[in-house]
Every structure is written in structure tokens, then in C-alpha cells.
Amino acid sequence: MFTERSGLIVWLNDSKPARNLEKYGTVHYISKRMNYVAMYVHTDRLEDTIRNIQRLPYVKKVENSYRKEIKTEYDKNIPDKTRFYSL
After folding, report:
1. Of the four, 1, 17, 46, 76, which is 20 to 30 A from 37 by CA?
2. HSE, side-chain direction, 13 A CA sphere, residue 81
């Protein structure tokens, strides 16, 4: 039902043409101050999409997002110390 998506960080020379990246995937966030775009693309078309985005004249570089590599399941082996500091 849902397709696998991968995150991309696209560094730009100028943030004005950033809306043009919507035809390559889902634009999640546009930073006008730091000139980058966080976007999601289909994983099966990832290499082709990166190659096409890198060819654009206003793109500095394209990086893969490391969000899928971050551990999101935590173990509760450490005791909760907040109950000792309550009033």
C-alpha cells in the first residue's frame, strides 16, 4: 500500500527555484536562510532522481538523509531518576 521513501537533503545556491524540486518528489521543508531543501523520493527511483537533481544549475550538492539509520527503539535499562528529584 505505502511505497518506501528515502529522504534527501538538497543544498542550493538560491532558495527561489526550490519549488521546482516538487516534480522529483515530496518537498518537506525549504530553508530560505541556509538554502537547503528536505525532501522525500521513492526508494526504487533514488539513484535516477539524485542524478537528475544534481544536473540542475541551482543545486550545489545532494545528500542522503540518515534518518533511517538512527535507532528509534529504546531500551529502558537505565532507571528513571526523575522520581528521586520530585518535591
Report:
1. 1
2. 1
Q: Which residues have CB under 8 Å from 74's CB, separation 6+?
A: none
Q: Using only C-alpha atoms, what is the Rg of the chain?
A: 18
Instruction: Please report whether residue 84 resides in a domain.
Output: no
Q: What is the CATH number of the domain that holds 43?
A: 3.30.70.80
Per-residue pLDDT reduced to its tens digit, 21-44:
999 999 999 999 999 999 999 999
Tell me which residue range forms the domain holding 64: 5-69
Q: What pLDDT, in 10s, does the model give residues 73-85?
A: 777 777 667 766 6
> Rounded CA gap, 40 and 11, in Å?
14
Please state whether beta strands 26-31 and 59-64 pair in parallel, antiparallel, or not at all (unpaired): unpaired
Q: Nine-digit cell at 24?
A: 522529483
